[in-house]
Amino acid sequence: MKGGISIQSNNPIERDVGINIYTTDTLGLGGIIKDTPSDFIVREITPNGEILTTGIVDKKIDLSLNETTKTKYTHFNVVKRHEDTIVAAQLIAAALKVPRDIISWAGLKDNHAITVQRMCIKGDHLAEVSKLQFNNIFIKDIHYGRKKIRTGDLWGNHFDIVIRNLGNDEENNPLDHINALTRDKISGILKEATSSINERGFPNFFGLQRFGSYRPNSHTIGKLIFLGDYKKAIEEFLMKSYPKEYDNVKNARNNLRETKDYEKALNEFPNVLKYERSVINYLIHNPGNYKTALKQLPTPLTRLLMSAYQSYLFNKALTTRKKSGFELDKPYKGDIISILAEENGEITHLRYKYGGSYDESLDKALKMRRALVMCPIIGFESENDDNFFSEIYNLVLEEENFAYSDFKSDFSPTEFKGTDRSIIIRPQFLDTRYRPEKGSASIELRFSLPKGTYATMLIREFTKN
Q1: Residue 461 phi, psi (nearest 5)
Q2: What span, in angstroms and rounded, lies between the C-alpha atoms of 89 and 100?
Q3: What is the rounded CA–CA span in Å between residue 198 and residue 364?
Q4: Residue 364's beta-bridge partner residues?
């Protein structure tokens, strides 16, 4: 079986964001994730490898660094249940009566989950932080620190995940290809898929969260902004509805698409859609000025939409490579290889092109898992690149009717130069087990992943739904 793949994704939303392959060829177990927040536990892993704990026995206040300096920060761990990272930071800022922007964290965490992560506040707020109490947020391990916690200041995350109701899809419909899911059948599939993932890894796709879990169209909006088609970008942002949205939201979007009545839309769009409402309000007073209307969005959000299109192109490139008969876990002439850091296994700036005098050493490093094959995340500086993916990207861009020069946008003409990302990920400490339950069966997955990777892309190798 070429490339170990016999099954392609039958999920239209996955295909829409460029995800169309698996590295495992086992039957999909189906099932439901995040049935309850406790089914999806995420624990941040610090840069030195410490896995944070979710226990909430006490607040554990450390006063060991209590001299007053201008560079002092108050550090603490935040345990959240079914709460968004940014919302948690906003609640903490409001309770302390400080600006939200002096609170920082290493990375965003899942909402419908139990998570723990580090945060910090500039200045001495230890006494005030120790008194904070919220319904779904618990603050612990409070201490002083000399350095700010910045985005990316983590190794990754450890996951404890339960997948319930095996043999059914997420709408609880029986999967056609699975009959009589016995314990032995589940255990056999688990063992085979786990062995394959440990050996070969799984595609390092950008997951659906990157494009919008409920409205997976960030990349579409981003592409339209790059192309300067601001009217269509606005229409996609405001008027395209998706099945998983609330009915009142879908109705508001559909009504605006049909009537183009922005004053009516301002009354119909719920207050929670504050970004949409800000754009609508601007267009009421400035009809037809779509470019400036888009600038009503926060700059980080606009950049996120635009970079989502780069992520989509990356996903398409991986899918195209595999469908063309080339392995994801094997190097070919022209592939770019990154050497990993010895102390923590993180990707370094060292890059070598495969197909030359270093091949023997690179093969050894790849076998020892001290190196990874990389794929470009293309930008306006990528046009003259000469690597394995160059021809693939030329085909993808032709299909997309998009040029490298289009990455030079009026919104951010110098930002989208291009970078790269590994094409596969091998999880650390992957452990899977069967969990018998009344009336159904479940499985439990435990594993660690480096920052920037998506647990759902590993989970789908088991569920395939």
Answers
A1: -65, -25
A2: 7
A3: 18
A4: none
**Residue type at position 448:** S
Q: What angle do CA 39, 112, 200 make, to 5 degrees?
A: 60
As a whole number of angstroms, the distance between CA 310 and CA 222 comes to: 9
**Cβ contacts of residue 64 below 8 Å, gap of 6+?**
143, 144
CA distance 17 to 205: 10
Q: Which domains does the chain have, with CATH numbers?
A: 2-33+164-204+426-463 (no CATH), 38-156 (3.30.70.3160), 218-297 (1.10.1510.30), 301-422 (3.30.2350.20)
Whole-prediction pTM value? 0.89
Phi, psi (rounded to 5 degrees) for 30: 65, -150
In the beta sheet, which residues pair with residue 163? 443
Residue where the block lists tokens 């939201």: 249
Q: pLDDT truncated to tens, each residue of the chain (465 aa)?
A: 344 444 677 788 899 999 999 999 998 898 999 989 999 999 999 999 999 999 876 666 766 665 555 558 999 999 999 998 988 999 999 999 999 999 999 998 988 899 999 999 999 999 999 999 999 999 999 999 989 999 999 999 999 999 998 876 565 565 555 555 678 888 999 999 999 999 999 999 999 999 998 899 999 999 999 999 999 999 999 999 999 899 999 999 999 999 999 999 999 999 999 999 999 999 999 999 999 999 999 988 999 999 999 999 999 999 999 999 999 999 999 999 999 988 778 888 999 999 999 999 999 999 999 999 999 999 999 998 999 999 999 999 999 999 999 999 888 878 999 999 999 999 999 999 998 777 678 999 999 999 999 999 999 999 987
Nearest Cα to 131, choosing from 90, 83, 95, 78?
Answer: 95
